[in-house]
């Protein structure tokens, strides 16, 4: 378990450094003090703190306990893998279908996986959430979301 913690801590530090360096190439915002590099760097600092905490905690505590094995027969593990695959499909589908249809489908899928079975309620909540996000991004923030085949309607 100790080797795994050291490996994950160092990997987290390296990934944080990559995020920090990559975000330096983002354009500087002349209007606001907080530019596009702020949130990636904020997340990188959080990852650095977490990775250092893992490394320090692993070094200070002399634990020889074995790591628990992951069984793919466990329903929770299967559900997590299915949801992860669903999120990847959602990210790719957004380019082709657009934000609204892919978000509605993904949210309904997530609610179904979370045991909500009222399909009418699932659709209404998904539709209203997608429209609210589009309204916020396009109306208030002036950020265009991918519309896919709905491009002509918005």
How would you describe the shape? flat
Largest sheet: none
What is the helix/strand order? HHHHH
Number of strands: 0
Structural class, from secondary structure content? mainly alpha
The gyration radius over C-alpha positions equals 21 Å
How far do the termini sit from each other?
Answer: 53 Å
Q: Low-confidence spans: pLDDT under 50, at least 5 residues?
A: none
Helix content: 55-70%
Strand percentage:
under 5%
Give the integer mean of the pLDDT values: 86
- Counting H and I runs of at least 4 residues, what is the number of helices? 5
Q: Domains counted in the coordinates: how many?
A: 2
Please write out the topology.
Blueprint: H1 2-23, H2 38-60, H3 75-97, H4 99-113, H5 119-140
Helix pairs in contact: 1-2, 3-4, 4-5
In short:
By secondary structure, the chain is mainly alpha-helical.
């Amino acid at each position: 378990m100790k080797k795994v913690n050291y490996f994950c801590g160092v990997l987290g530090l390296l990934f944080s450094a990559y995020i920090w360096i990559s975000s330096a190439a983002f354009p500087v915002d002349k209007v606001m003090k907080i530019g596009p590099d702020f949130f990636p760097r904020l997340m990188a600092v959080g990852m650095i703190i977490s990775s250092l905490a893992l490394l320090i905690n692993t070094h200070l505590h002399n634990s020889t306990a074995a790591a628990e094995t992951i069984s793919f027969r466990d329903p929770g593990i299967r559900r997590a893998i299915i949801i992860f695959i669903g999120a990847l499909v959602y990210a790719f589908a957004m380019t082709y279908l657009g934000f609204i249809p892919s978000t509605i489908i993904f949210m309904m899928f997530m609610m179904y996986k979370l045991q909500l079975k009222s399909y009418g309620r699932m659709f209404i909540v998904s539709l209203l959430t997608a429209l609210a996000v589009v309204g916020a991004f396009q109306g208030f923030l002036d950020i265009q979301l991918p519309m896919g085949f709905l491009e002509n309607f918005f």
